[in-house]
Amino acid sequence: MTINPDLTINFSSTHRLQWEEAQQKDVILYPEGMVELNQSSAEILKLCDGSRTLDQLVTDLEVKFATSGLKNDISSFLEDALKNGWIQQP
What is the pLDDT of residues 58-72, one digit of tens each? Predict the structure, then answer.
């Protein structure tokens, strides 16, 4: 599965992204369990609200963190997230 750069990216409706106080990290909750996220992964997934394409998401993160060259890393993570069912595209 690959991310279609022309389509928006949505966080899955069958998963929930939330801060978990006990672990002091953001996690993905789903019926079968929980996935702990590092800060970078959480920041990417927080922007998967159905309003941004891949390029828009990359631009927003590069502006937020005052850096550039994140597209390959973000694309790679989002492809894994798509395979895991954490995100969807219309």
Answer: 999 999 999 999 999
61 φ/ψ angles, rounded to the nearest 5 degrees: -70, -40
Model's pTM, two decimal places? 0.93
């993570």: which residue's tokens? 77
48: its two tokens:
């998967």
HSE value, Cβ hemisphere, 13 Å, CA-based, for 78: 29
Using CA atoms, how far apart are residues 89 and 57, in angstroms rounded to an integer? Answer: 14
Q: Which two tokens stand for residue 60?
A: 């927003």
CATH of 10-88, one of 3.40.50.2000, 1.10.10.1150, 2.40.30.40, 3.30.930.10: 1.10.10.1150
- The closest of 15, 13, 39, 14 to 25, measured between CA atoms, is 39
